[in-house]
């Protein structure tokens, strides 16, 4: 498991699968659960270069161009995990803002109802 400088985004690289050699990349969420964010496909077929690594996201779309530098790939996945964390944080904040906005409208409606009820009771 590798941590970034701010220790907020954790990236976990699995051991290569014994049959396919695929490496699953996961990010560790704040509650210490793990979410897969990509797969690394090593290619040992090129004789000039020891290995080439192609990486995809969970849907199979290529994330980064193939590279022979695994450290560069680790750094890219760390940045990608940070982007995903920021994106999910913003989605959560927008969801909460919408929820609180809806609550505010409900409270205003209740206050108007209460005010109308009080006026009706006083006018009797």
Explain what the structure shows.
The protein has 124 residues and is an alpha+beta fold. It has one domain. Helix content is 44%, strand content 27%. It is built from 1 helix and 6 strands, in the order E-E-E-E-E-E-H. A 6-stranded antiparallel sheet has the order 1-2-3-4-5-6, with helices on one face. Strand 4 and strand 5 form a beta hairpin. It is rod-shaped, with a radius of gyration of 25 Å. The mean pLDDT is 80.
Q: Which residues sit in consecutive blocks of at least 5 with pLDDT less than 50?
A: none
Number of helices: 1
Average pLDDT rating: 80
What gap, in angstroms, lies between the N and C termini? 72 Å
Give me the secondary-structure category: alpha+beta
Q: Trace the largest sheet across and list its strands.
A: 1-2-3-4-5-6
Percent helix, as a range, is 40-55%
Radius of gyration: 25 Å
Q: What characteristic shape results from the CA principal axes?
A: rod-shaped
Order of helices and strands: EEEEEEH
**Strand content range:** 25-35%
What's the main sheet like?
A: 6 strands, antiparallel
Counting DSSP E segments of at least 2 residues, the number of strands comes to 6
Q: How many distinct domains?
A: 1
């Amino acid at each position: 498991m590798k941590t970034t400088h701010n220790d907020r985004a954790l990236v976990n690289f699995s051991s290569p699968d014994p049959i396919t050699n695929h490496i699953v990349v996961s990010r560790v969420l704040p509650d210490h659960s793990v979410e897969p964010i990509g797969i690394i496909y090593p290619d040992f077929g090129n004789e000039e270069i020891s290995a080439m690594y192609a990486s995809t996201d969970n849907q199979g779309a290529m994330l980064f161009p193939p590279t022979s530098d695994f450290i560069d790939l680790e750094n890219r996945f760390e940045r990608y995990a940070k982007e995903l964390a920021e994106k999910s944080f913003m989605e959560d904040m927008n969801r909460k803002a919408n929820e609180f906005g809806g609550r505010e409208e409900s409270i205003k409606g209740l206050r108007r109802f209460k005010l109308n009820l009080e006026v009706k009771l006083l006018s009797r």
